[in-house]
Amino acid sequence: MLDYSKSFIETQFPVSKVSKESYKERKAVQGQTLTGLGKWWGRKPLILVRATILGILLPVSDNPKKDREVFLKLLTMDDEGLLLRKSKNLSTKDVFRLLTNKEKEKYFSASSTDEKPIFKKEITKAEKLSLQELSFNRLSYDEKMMYCDRPEHVANLNKKAWMEINSHLGTSASSIKELVKEIGGKRYGHTPKIGDCFAGGGSIPFEAARLGTDVYASDLNPVASLLTWASLNIAGTSDEEVKTLVEFQKKVFEEANKIILSWGIEENERGWRGNAYLYCNETTCPECDYSVPLLPTMIIGRGPTNTIAKLVKEPLEKAFNIKIVENVSKEELKQSEKNVTLFDYSLKCPNCNKLTPIPSIRKDMDDGVTREYRYNTPNQLRKWGINDFKNLETDIYKERLYCIRYEEVVKNSNGEDRIIRHFVEPDEKDLEREYKVDQLLRERFTKWRELGYIPSTLIEKGWNTNQLTYEKGWTYWSNLYNPRQLLVTGLLMELTDKLAENNKQRVIGLLGVNKSADWNSKLSMWDNGKSPSVKNVFYNQSLNTLFNYGCRGLTLYKTIWFYNINNFKIDSHTLVNPLNATEIKEKCDIWITDPPYADAVHYHELTELFLSWDKTMIEKIFPEWYSDTKRVLAVQGVGESFNKKMIDIYKNLASNMPDNGTQVVMFTHQDVKVWAELAMILWSSGLRVISAWNIATETESGGLKDGGNYVKGTVLLVLKKQTSNDIAFQDELYRKIKKEVQFQIDSMRELDDKEDPNFTDADYLLASYASSLKVLTAYKEIEGIDVQYELSKPRNSNEESPIEALINKAVKIAYDYLIPDGVDSLVWRDLLPEERFFIRGLELEMGNVHQISAYQELARGFGVGDYQDMFENFKANSVRLKTASEYKVKGIDRDAFGSSLMRHALMAIYQCVKAESTAEGKNYLKAKYDQNNEYWDKRSAIIEILGFISRFENITHMGHWHQDAYYARLLREAVRNDGI
């Protein structure tokens, strides 16, 4: 019996598989469907959106396991779906490894070895294909994914799969779109309509439309609205139209190429074409009056050319020439790393060897005044005007071109073109070409600015934007681009406007201009690695000013102008516009939103770089849109103002949703205080929590992301309209929360796949959060809790709110209830939080869970703050705890864990391993605990701990524990038999 009053996502969600698929999609980088269209921060993976939408639409039955099977089948996350997605073959060696001895004898020659397996000569192609399938099916889910395309690349399921799906759901669909219309009709009476008022980069609207739902998308920010429109109308168009759009891109580029060649600004006298130009600032050393180039590195490029810059002193001019040297030795390359003139944010003068801090060069004047934004200390840098696009000779910072990378085209022996790259210092002719660039821009500057081909807008003050004025003196967005950058990108904008015949062509050209604005600016870092190139401005979530940067010639624009359009034909009804979320009047059955939270990213500031280029073209393409960021209306900051805006928004969304509608709020899971605050915001908006699921992905990264390990856990908070008028009393809530937490954990455990576990402790912890909120928000009001007062308190307040207290109790309930398999409940009760953390951490390892976020959640749940010393590896996706032999004697009796029974048991195991005898380990434990007659009291707990560790002896992926686990088993028996 199907129940359409409930959704699959309310009762269960395969978080482990969705997390893995989301991670696989993120790792595809530019291979992701929408990233080619343009920069946006924090686009949600499409597979996560797809799973969420299907989870909301699918009904539940009296057979939860079958519900789950059908859900996974629709997402191609079941065995048959993975086989359908398989796009790579296993190697012969891997096939051989996965076969039984009998199968090896049947298919492989007698001379086969693990390293060199050889098929028998008579084996047919069909048999090899069959072996591929057989061995593939024996892999774990993680291993299978390495050979698979992403779910979105599967055009459709096979007839057998649809028969099984339709049989369970009582439908007659033969595609996802048909199914969505059918089950949407059964749930809502019509094709479901999905809305997103924080559309951002367009992931949610795009995937909703791709599934066949009607879509409403809005965002306060017009750049976000542009990207969302592009996702639906360009990534959502036909193959034929994409070909037409690519032809338009070529037409604009080829015309730009003709013009630039006619200007003679990129080709030198040898016919070489300049494709990269390196510039640096220079300033006067206050100690010796020398003019010094500010270079944080002297390396131009590693790898094939090993190119460096060398400073040559010119005493008469009190300056330095910069000599470019190719093909230097490894020793010279290494030495050049030390010869920098910018070190530790200070000028390091190569003439007098004095260090002068950059703030002193700028003549910062800290007047002690507290200001609204950072980077607002006055200094003596000249403030650039709207007509400025160059440094003046009188400026504190001047600028010079110090290296050009030219490309020489030669014919190889086959008559084919081959490109040779040369790094050279600019000569007089090069500087003449620089002057010509300057003149060409001056001739067009005023007209182009009026037509909107180059930026003319002022840089507004802000958290990120103030840095530009404080560190460089720039006050207009055009100041961020040198003459060559303005000339080439402005030319592409002009040609787009003149050659476009429709709005799709204008948008595809505008997106190319946006990519140029990001990848060719004075904020574009020169990457001097093995494949040197110009990087983008937004490699992180900031506007980082540079003292040296790379500039692209037109040939290097190819990699940004011709971007990936991974299209999928969309024929749903869609509407996109920029709008304040409180003003939305559109009715939607489902709202899925990923709101800005706590100023994680200052979208309204960062996107003004793009909007400075887009403004006029947006007004032409979308006359009904506005074209500024409306930053005063942006949801930002923390505290009472932020909370009020969020309540107003979600109250409006709730009023534009039917009584049986659903909302999903996506946010990054932080601490209990954030949870409590968000719960009160949504509760105040007339919504109640139904369930919550944590999708964890993490990548190794840099920039602003802490420690090179970027932990990303997206919580899906599932909500319905608040319909109750009941009032609850705090003293009755604890019992109800305890019951709900235990019920939720039991349900999850019953559904879990023992062979391929879906839930970790992080998920059970999250279930306890959700259970507490589910109970709390089921009531109209709770006696003694003043929501408005709690929301008015600062987030950093040390005062624990009643909501936080109840969530924390729910967490304790969960962790008291989650006793590891094979551990006695009485022993578990007496363990320290640190010991419980270590044991459950080892359980995560047994389940092949190696994400940082999972262990962080665990630590948070047990209230353990200092835990990193317990880990042998704490890098993204490869986390694991120390073994006894890796611990050795480290940390014994130093802290709570070092003094614990668990730690001393590990020490005893280490003694056994070292001595290759259990006597040493047993003697260690007796010496430690016999002095106070504790040994016999603790013996049963010691036996439990050793027994738990001994389980790792035969777990294949825990080979690092095998020896320790072997001795743990022997020591357990020695302690058990002690005294007999």
Tell me briefly what this model is:
The chain is of the alpha+beta class and 980 residues long. The protein has four domains: 8-186, no CATH class; 255-561, no CATH class; 637-817, no CATH class; 854-976, no CATH class.
Task: Give the topology.
Layout lengths: L7 H4 L3 H13 L18 H12 L6 H11 L4 H7 L6 H7 L2 H7 L17 H12 L4 H5 L13 H11 L6 H13 L4 E4 L6 H8 L3 E6 L2 H12 L5 H25 L9 E12 L6 E3 L5 E3 L5 E8 L4 E7 L4 H7 L5 E2 L2 E3 L6 E3 H5 L35 E14 L5 E8 L3 H24 L14 H7 L10 H17 L3 H17 L6 E2 L5 E2 L13 E5 L1 H8 L12 E5 L11 E4 L9 H4 L1 H14 L18 H16 L6 E7 L3 H13 L2 E14 L8 E13 L5 E3 H22 L9 H16 L4 E3 L3 H6 L9 H16 L7 H6 L2 H14 L5 H11 L8 E3 L6 E2 L2 H4 L13 H15 L2 H12 L5 H16 L11 H15 L4
Parallel strand pairs: 1-2, 1-17, 2-16, 17-18, 21-22
Antiparallel strand pairs: 3-4, 3-11, 3-15, 5-6, 6-7, 8-9, 9-10, 11-12, 13-14, 18-20, 19-20, 23-24
Describe the structure.
There is one protein chain. The chain has 980 residues and is of the alpha+beta class. The protein has 4 domains: 8-186, no CATH class; 255-561, no CATH class; 637-817, no CATH class; 854-976, no CATH class. 44% of the residues lie in helices and 14% in strands. It has a 7-stranded mixed sheet, sandwiched between helices. Strands 3, 4, 11, 12 and 15 form a 5-stranded antiparallel sheet that branches. The protein has a 3-stranded antiparallel sheet with strand order 5-6-7, with no helix packed on it. The two termini are 60 Å apart. Residues 699-711 have low confidence and may be disordered.
